[in-house]
Amino acid sequence: MGKFRGLISESEYIAQNFAYIFIRNSSKIEAAKEIIGLINNLEYKEGGKISNNDIDILLKTTSEFLNGERLWKAKYGGFVVKPKRTDNKDFLELIEYIKKEINKK
C-alpha cells in the first residue's frame, strides 16, 4: 500500500480494492465472500477490529467507485478499470449479506 500514500487515503485504497474484486469476479457472491474475508482481517494500527461505522464507510465508498461517483486513482495491471452498469446494483443487493457475514464464525 506504500506507493499510494499521499495520493489516496487508506480507506479509499481499501474500498477501491473491494470494488476491483467485485468487478473482476463473475460470481458476485464469491466476490462478496472475498470482501468479507478481507474485512474480517482489517485492524486498526492501534489494534482491534474495525468498527461497524468504518465498515459502513468502506462499503459506501466501494459503491461510489462502482457507480462512478468516485474516480479510480489506481490502475490494475496497467489498465484503468471500468465497472459494468450492473456492478453497483449487484453490490448494493449484497451489502446486507456482507454485513451479516462479517466476523461470523
User: Helical amount among residues, as a percent range?
Assistant: 55-70%
> Regions with pLDDT < 50 over 5+ consecutive residues?
1-5
Order of helices and strands: HHHH
Give the total of domains: 1
**Main sheet summary:** none
Radius of gyration: 13 Å
**Strand segment count:** 0
Global shape: globular
- Given helix and strand content, the structural type is mainly alpha
Number of H- or I-type helical stretches: 4
Oligomer: single chain
Q: On the 0-100 scale, what is the average pLDDT? A: 87
SS strand fraction:
under 5%
How far is the first residue's CA from the last residue's CA? 28 Å
Report what the structure shows.
The protein is an all-alpha fold. The chain has one domain (2-101). 55% of the residues lie in helices and 0% in strands. It has four helices and no strands. It has helices at 10-24, 28-40, 52-66, 87-101. Helix 1 packs across helix 3 (52-66), helix 2 crosses helix 4 and helix 3 runs antiparallel to helix 4. The protein is globular. It starts with 9 loop residues before the first helix and ends with a helix. Residues 1-5 have low confidence and may be disordered.
